Amino acid sequence: PPGCGQPLSYPVGLSSSPLPQAIPGMTVKCGKFEVQLDTVQQAGGAGYYSGSGRVTNIPFLAIVQVIGMISGNANTNLSAGGGLQVTFSNIFINQDREVTQGTVYAVTRPLEEWLGEFDEYFKEQRAERQQADNRKKFAWLDSSTVMLGFDKNYTEVKYDTLNHILTMIGEDGNTYTYTLKPEEKGKNLVINTPDGNQWVVGKNGTVELAKGGGINPNPPGALSSTESDILKLALVKLKNKYTNDTLELLQSKSLTEKNKITNRTINHYTAMKGAAPAPGSDAAEVYEIGVANRSIVSNSVLGSIGTGYENAVLAYNTAKICRLFARETNSRQELDLVGSYLKVNNQNYKTYVAQKQAAGTSNDSIAADVAIAIEQLIATTIQLKRK
Fold it and tell me: What does the alpha-carbon distance between residue 40 and residue 50 come to, in Å, rounded to a whole number?
């Protein structure tokens, strides 16, 4: 293949009839290479063009292309569609789309730049893997963990659990101490340092370096232990409310209401047509009119039957989703997500819990209110989906 700044050669003895028009996206042949045109404009006489493009049929570029894509470097010599970038000026392209005159130059970059990109990319990948390993290793840290930040890097950290004092040896050899505040005592700690490392300090006195960091057990919006416990209790209440027997009862009621609509619409059809619909034909159509399109069969025909059916279906579907939701929502991330969106009596979940606890309300009573709010949210979502 051509080197940096080297021209792409082409054979002689080809057609001399000019290509009438060259457009972006067109592929032309330049010797053994195929060049896809990215930008092109006519330059002088018929068949002469200038612009840029990319060679798409060099096998080794497949590897380079992958690295260019995953490195995310916009300055690579690969265009968006892949291929070695080229430029050309006043080349002649014949009617067979072959370059017979002029020079097509490959635009490459120094090898040192490529090696630098390789190194930077793999360095980032190693850092991401290290942080993922840290999060997995210290997954036992909960949302009550205290995050501390200091302006020095340390080679050693010790924790005196009796006096609640951190002793740290800096890279400069000096010793630094930090006395925990009252609200920080008795909790796990994560110390962040400027070098990107973290020190995990257990409330029992254990200390371990998490090289590369990446640990954040208390992201924005995360629930406290108490808030998580109340939400879990609310989910248990929903699960206990909607047992299998309850679901079967609600399903049976919805089927009963469905049959009422079927009978009412068939009777209406009979009154209008003078005869009952034949089984398996009009009956199905009449049912669809009554259930799926109440604008055709008026409310005066369906009366309260239509509303009864809609309410019965809503109750059954709400119950099904509440039970599934209560059974499947159990991870801390899922609880945090629910807590961030849930409103109880028109207040954010965290705000509502804080106010109720300040008023001396028991966690069980708060959970009962939260369970109702979850149920209402699910029912509202179902109704919106139906509209």
Answer: 6
